[in-house]
Write a structure and sequence with these properties.
The chain is α/β, with parallel strands linked by helices. The chain has two domains: 94 residues, Four Helix Bundle (Hemerythrin (Met), subunit A), CATH 1.20.120; 190 residues, Rossmann fold, CATH 3.40.50. Helix content is 51%, strand content 12%. The chain contains 13 helices and eight strands. It has an eight-stranded mixed β-sheet with strand order 3-2-4-1-5-6-7-8, sandwiched between helices. β6, α12 and β7 form a beta-alpha-beta unit. α3 runs antiparallel to α4 and α5 packs antiparallel against α6.
Amino acid sequence: MNDSVKEGGAKSWWQRLTGGLKRTSGSLGATITDLVMRGPLAPERIVEIEEALIRADLGVDVATAMATTMGDGRYKNLAEVKAVLAAEVEKVLAPVAKPLIPTGAKPFVILVVGVNGSGKTTTIGKLAARFRAEGRSVMLAAGDTFRAAAIDQLKIWGQRTGAPVFARQPGADAAGLAFDALEAARAQGVDVLLVDTAGRLQNRAELMGELEKIVRVMKKVDATAPHAVLLVLDATVGQNALSQVDVFLKTAGVTGLAMTKLDGTARGGILVAIAAKYRLPVHFIGVGEGVDDLAPFTAADFARAIAGMEN
């Protein structure tokens, strides 16, 4: 167990994490428990293990590797099998568990992208709260100029977190707003600039083109900006998340991921499949609506939670 999880505050996150992943771990656990109850996990029953892992959206390659490890007959009880599952998941996830903000650029510019309903604006608000609690100054840019509600929602988060919000009227040019927001953040010496964007379906070429324009225009202010392009993914969409990663990688140069709504699905394993295929850093995961239900991603804790292991 990660040392941070032993501390009081982090232990409450462990409880939220295991609770949020209960649908996924419960689905996997029921199948694994049934297999163990029926005797040693002999090689001929490896297919059943693979199927359970694939149903949790862990991906065929990952499921096959895990099933091969668990299916050689050495593991006699449920605790041993869960430990092996957690170890195999951690192998995939450990290389991608990385912090979002390294030392360096100021302001550190985070462009937040994703499709409608993925939880972008809420994630920005939660990140702002976290960064403010860490002592960083934060500015929010309301780059989702298509929806008045998104601008209003970001302003509410600004009030909650004490972060100024750079906004214009609905319908304003999003790239121009991003340009001006970055100039303002530089002038004010802000530590972190979080830029919201309109929700884009990955098959809408004109909207994806605008996203490319936002990136291009920001580089006129700072050639190194944006310093992070954070793709927010909704875990409940399952395999569709893979195609979202593919398109946003090509269009916006995604540098890392935040996965939300893991509490709303039995297919939380999709994060493992994405990590195995794209090797993109996973910075944050969300398991609920509360501001504390978004936390930095830790491979060991996620692996133990998805395997249904005890604290």
